Amino acid sequence: MKEGTVKFFNEAKGYGFIQPNDSNGDVFVHQSGLIDNIQENDKVKYTLEMGQKGMNAVNVELLDE
């Protein structure tokens, strides 16, 4: 699984972006791909899946701190 930090998440619209630890490009995340509820600056782990417009984060879980 990949790890990153939630850069932006809009709860009302149900989507946001994760900044991966190993890359400069942000990854799209939709609420349908969440296991845990997330908010900005949360540390998360996730897997990548090809979506209609590119790679999406799915199976998104909070990291145990």
TrEMBL record:
* Keywords from the UniProt entry: Cytoplasm
Q: Name one Pfam family in it.
A: CSD
Q: Does Zinc count among this protein's keywords? A: no
Presence of keyword Signal: no
Q: What is its main location?
A: cytoplasm
**Residues in CSD domain copies:** 1-62
User: Where is this chain's protein located in or outside the cell?
Assistant: Cytoplasm
Please indicate which superkingdom the organism of origin belongs to: Bacteria
Against SMART domains, the record matches this protein to: CSP
Q: Which SUPFAM superfamilies match?
A: Nucleic acid-binding proteins
**InterPro entries the record matches:** Cold_shock_CspA, Cold_shock_domain, CSD, CSD_CS, CSP_DNA-bd, NA-bd_OB-fold
Q: Which GO terms describe its molecular function?
A: nucleic acid binding
Mind naming one GO cellular-component term on file for this protein? cytosol
Please state what the protein is called. Answer: Cold shock domain-containing protein
